[in-house]
């Protein structure tokens, strides 16, 4: 029996999610024995027009050419998997959706008329049907291995949507929402520490974000910024109220909510309410 064909395509992104395949190490060789990877530019295989069983797509859609290409990939692929936060929800580059993108082009480039870019950048699901979303910024090798194993067995891939807070509790991580974190920056002059900086609570999105990352950011004292997607039944308004109670203003909270997920409708709605409330106060 012929081995399933796999393609890995890149759009607007940093390549970090593609590296999850290469980071599999020896397990990548095991994967290559089970499937036929026909297109993966970073690994040297180039066949973007070949029909495949599974197409992994990294990155968001930011040009007219991207729209045409993603629709073509959908036609030649039995299943399409969005790989990472950019492909699934717009990612960091979708921050430009919150500003005047055309003005940015004018300020950054001496001849912006030669820059072929859409006004906004969007996730894949705006333009095509996506069969499954793999979240993360970047995703990790374990997610890739589990997903492909399920697909090869004909099973529906399983992905936990529990809140990240549960993962932090299991690992006995100190909550960044309730503790005052001390960040110390050292500048040593003749063996003396001459500078310290102290910060307060952080605007953590763990209460509305799905687990799966291993609580990576909280494990180093940083607040979650939501790259693993929304948990089941998220309550962004409840989180906003909690953050307001900690002293964060509406604009700060809105920016945090939309940092990765500018395409998520529930977060857009909450961010709009926060912005309106702040304007009313001012």
CATH-defined topology of the largest domain: Rossmann fold
Percentage of helical residues? 25-40%
> SSE order, as H and E?
EHHEEHEHHEHHEEHHHH
- Strand percent estimate: 5-15%
Assigned CATH architecture of the largest domain: 3-Layer(aba) Sandwich
What is the domain total for the residues? Answer: 2
The CATH superfamily of the largest domain is identified as NADH:ubiquinone oxidoreductase-like, 20kDa subunit
Helix/sheet category = alpha/beta
Q: Categorize the overall geometry.
A: globular
How is this structure best summarized?
This protein is of the alpha/beta class. It has 2 domains: 5-152, 3-Layer(aba) Sandwich (Rossmann fold), CATH 3.40.50; 164-281, no CATH class. It has helices at 19-22, 26-34, 64-75, 85-89, 101-108, 141-152, 164-170, 216-219, 236-245, 250-258, 265-281; strands at 5-10, 36-40, 52-58, 77-83, 132-134, 188-189, 192-193.
Can you describe what's shown?
With 282 residues, this protein is an alpha/beta fold. The protein folds into 2 domains: 148 residues, NADH:ubiquinone oxidoreductase-like, 20kDa subunit (Rossmann fold), CATH 3.40.50.700; 118 residues, no CATH class. Helix content is 34%, strand content 11%. It is built from 11 helices and 7 strands. The strands form 2 sheets. It has a 5-stranded parallel beta sheet with strand order 2-1-3-4-5, with helices on both faces. The chain has a two-stranded antiparallel sheet with strand order 6-7. A hairpin with a 2-residue loop joins strand 6 and strand 7. Helix 10 packs antiparallel against helix 11. The longest helix has 17 residues. The protein is globular. The termini are far apart.
